Amino acid sequence: MSELPVTSAKARIRLAPSYWIHDNAVPFSDDIQPASLFLRNRHYLVVDTETQKIAQDVGGWDHVDKLGISVACAYDSKTGEMLSFRENELEKLHKLCKERLVVGYNIMGFDLKVLSAYGFDSKRLDVFDIMLDVQQNSGWRYVKLDNIAKATLGTEKSADGLQAVEWYKQGQIDKIIEYCIKDVEITRDVFVYGMKNGNIKIAKADGTSAAFPVQWT
C-alpha cells in the first residue's frame, strides 16, 4: 500500500493568518487531524502570571525567563474553576497546560517565557495568543488588554504588574492572587465574547472604539 502524501501543517490546518506569524503558537503532532486548533482542543485554560521581579532587575526584556513566578492563575473551561498556583505548585499548572488549549494575552511574548524557567516548553503546548490574533486582524501593534476590556466588556484592570511585584516584596500574596484572577477573568471574558459574537472592540485615544472581526471557534 502506498504511503499518503505528506503536506505541511499550513496546508492541512485551517487557521487565521496570525497563527503563522509566530511558529511557536502552532505546535502540531505528526498525527494532527485536518481541523483548526480550536476543534483539536475541546477545553481551554486561560492563563496569566505575575512575577517576583521587574525587567530592569534582570537586565531587560531579553531575560524575562529570570523574572520568577510569584503567582500563576488559570480558568479551566472543563471544570469552570478558577485556580491559583504558587511557585512551588507550577507542575500542577504544567500538567493542565498539556491537556488543554492554553489561552492568554501576550502569553507567547511574556507568560510562557517566564514559565520556561520552570520546564514549560511552548513548542510542546497548543497555545492561542489573543494579542497576536488581534494584532493581525486590526493591524494595530501592542494593543493593551485594558483597551479591549474597556470597549468590549465595559471593565478594566484593577492594578498592574509593577504593583504586583511590590505586593510580592511585601509578602502580600493574597493581593497578587486577587489581581491575577481578575486579569484571568477579563482575558476569559474577552475570549468568550469573541467566540460568541465574532468580533472584539478596542478603545481609541479619542474616547471612541473600533470593532474588528475575529474567528475563535
Q: Quickly name the level 1 CATH class.
A: Alpha Beta
Number of domains: 1
Rg, rounded, reads 18 Å
Please tell me what the overall shape is.
globular
User: How far do the termini sit from each other?
Assistant: 36 Å
- The assembly state of the depicted protein chains is single chain
Overall strand count: 7
Largest sheet, in brief, is: 5 strands, mixed
CATH homology superfamily name: Ribonuclease H-like superfamily/Ribonuclease H
CATH topology: Nucleotidyltransferase, domain 5
Q: What is the typical, i.e. mean, pLDDT?
A: 84
**How many distinct helices?**
8
Order of helices and strands: HHEEEHEHEHHHHEE
* Low-pLDDT segments: 1-35
**What level of helicity do the residues show?**
25-40%
Labels describing this entry:
globular; 8 helices; two-stranded antiparallel ribbon; five-stranded mixed beta sheet; alpha/beta; about 20% strand; single chain; about 220 residues; disordered N terminus; Nucleotidyltransferase, domain 5
Fold blueprint:
Blueprint: H1 9-12, H2 37-40, E1 44-51, E2 69-76, E3 81-86, H3 90-99, E4 101-104, H4 107-115, E5 127-129, H5 130-138, H6 145-153, H7 161-169, H8 173-197, E6 199-203, E7 209-213
Parallel strand pairs: 1-4, 4-5
Antiparallel strand pairs: 1-2, 2-3, 6-7
Helix pairs in contact: 6-8, 7-8
